[in-house]
Amino acid sequence: MTFATRFAPSPTGYLHRGHAFSALTAFEAARAAGGRFVLRIEDIDRTRCRPEFTEAIFEDLAWLGLDWERPARVQSEHMIDYEAALDRLRGRGLLYRCFKTRKEIVEAAASAPHGPEEPFRGDPLPPEEEEALLAEGKGFAWRLSLDAAREALGGFDGLAFVEDGHGSVQARPDLAGDVVLARKDVGVAYHLAVVVDDALQRIDHVIRGVDLFEATHIQRLLQALLDLPTPTYRHHPLLTDAEGRRFAKRDRAETLRDLRGRGVSPQALRAELGFS
Ligand code: GLU
């Protein structure tokens, strides 16, 4: 039996306890199974990611006692792989250009017939209108058309994934609306890069926080559209602090470097997080 899992942080800040918990969960699962543990740096968003945070990820994980297959995959070095996947989807008529600004999307949501929570569904523009906007130099994102995807697959009923320990889950990609697969500013988007990389890195177990459970529904659809295998998923609970709040970079949670700086040992942190 093979077993390959990964930890895929975005270098938008320093790692904190929540990341350590997630990385250790995946690493220890790979070790228990005698499998592979892979590290992936998800840095396609050049507006938010910084190289010094990537370096810090390597350092902090090594300090924690983790070891991963070298070299780690750094997404920004592989844009060509994501472009190839986008080309495939475009070639099948599954993507359309969306010229709407963030503000226009928020406004459209506010007046949606079923309220602001209704998933975004756009409409491809008629070719003349599109050409005019392109000629004006107006920016656009590529969105996945749920209607076209549904038609290509003959419906979404056959889309399921296994949640480890819970059996088969029916994927509901329709709940997310027409997701962006290539952002206006960075040329690719999270969901696309993740499914391409999970396949290229031969990941058969995706272990990550439950905050990404919804993402799995979309990623399952993309796997079907790109003829990629579907890994087994395990979404672990998020680590919370003494007040029950989850650790998050934006809350300025104490980072692994801070812990290290005040003399906490990796063994002590591992024990605190429930790992021996
Ligand atoms: N890069 C994502 C994050 O840091 C994780 C992606 C994933 O595990 O699929 O939240």
Automatic annotation (TrEMBL):
Pfam families: tRNA-synt_1c
UniProt similarity note: Belongs to the class-I aminoacyl-tRNA synthetase family.
Domain Glutamyl/glutaminyl-tRNA synthetase class Ib catalytic: 4-271
Superkingdom of the source species: Bacteria
GO cellular component: cytosol
NCBIfam families (alphabetical): PRK05710.1-4
PANTHER family: GLUTAMATE--TRNA LIGASE (PTHR43311), GLUTAMYL-Q TRNA(ASP) SYNTHETASE (PTHR43311:SF1)
Protein name: tRNA glutamyl-Q(34) synthetase GluQRS
Keywords, in A-Z order: Aminoacyl-tRNA synthetase, ATP-binding, Ligase, Metal-binding, Nucleotide-binding, Protein biosynthesis, Zinc
One GO term (biological process): glutamyl-tRNA aminoacylation
GO molecular function: ATP binding; glutamate-tRNA ligase activity
